[in-house]
Amino acid sequence: MRLPWVDPNILVVGPLVLAWHGLLIGLGVLAGVLVAAQIGKRLRYQLSDDAISAIALWAVPGGIVGGRLAHVVDRWDFYASNPASVLAITEGGMAIWGSVLGGSLAAWLYVKRQGLPVGQAADLGAFGLLVGQIIGRVGCLINGDAYGAPTEVPWAVVYTHPGAFAPLGVPTHPWPVYEILWSGLTLALLWRLMGRVRPEGMLFLLYLAAYAVGRFFLTFLRQERILFLGLQEAHLISLLVLAVVVPALVYLSLTSATTRRMAPSRH
């Protein structure tokens, strides 16, 4: 599948650039907030639309900073020699794990400061993040900043537009499509479990675990810098996330089961 007609930039007026990637990330954020608000109503959560919007106003900048920092660390050999490029976000370069963790941390700080229910905010955030990731990755497919390894599979993509970040004329795995599909499956799983798992916050932990598993294996189809034992940055972060999240899931599951057993029966 060739992509010769896709210009990563929709419109360029002097120094101002409207890119597909930025537009779709913005749409993804908006859609994520709207979906989170609707699910909050469905679950009868205590978070109002205004509270969800306020959380997003903290999460988005946190995600941008976290995503950029993770990217800079991953490409430190380049940025150490070009420090001025660290702030050139419009030129591309965001690591999704950094965005997820940075945005989650910023949202948690705001939620704790306002005394809002952390578990509810986390669960709604899981849905919002998945929707945002699915839409945002379409932008990655267009501009080629998350291209896969060279391959000869029939569904390989070939970038030919000079504005693309991917190698031109080289068949590569359509890696953003793989992640879109995995995120879609994860979203379907959370939707299925919505309202069925306790305590609140479990859905967010399940999202982190599922994304970490998928990202670990999908990263083998990327060609980023190797950091340790043949593993890339995303591999290592995924393993670290699983090392924290899986014990937390087990603990919360056992605690919830114990609480249900000890609760007085109603007749």
Order of helices and strands: EEEHHHHHEHHEEH
Number of domains: 1
Query: What proportion of the residues form beta strands (DSSP E)?
Result: 5-15%
Please count the helical segments.
8
Shape annotation: globular
Sum this structure up briefly.
With 267 residues, the chain is mainly alpha-helical.
SSE layout and pairing:
Elements: E1 2-3, E2 9-13, E3 16-19, H1 20-42, H2 49-74, H3 76-79, H4 96-114, H5 118-143, E4 158-159, H6 175-193, H7 202-218, E5 226-228, E6 231-232, H8 233-262
Question: Can you describe what's shown?
Answer:
It is a single chain. The chain is mainly alpha-helical and 267 residues long. It has one domain. 61% of the residues lie in helices and 7% in strands. The strands form three sheets. Strands 1-4 form a two-stranded parallel ribbon. It has a two-stranded antiparallel ribbon with strand order 2-3. The protein has a two-stranded antiparallel sheet with strand order 5-6. Helix 1 packs antiparallel against helix 5. The longest helix has 30 residues, at 233-262.
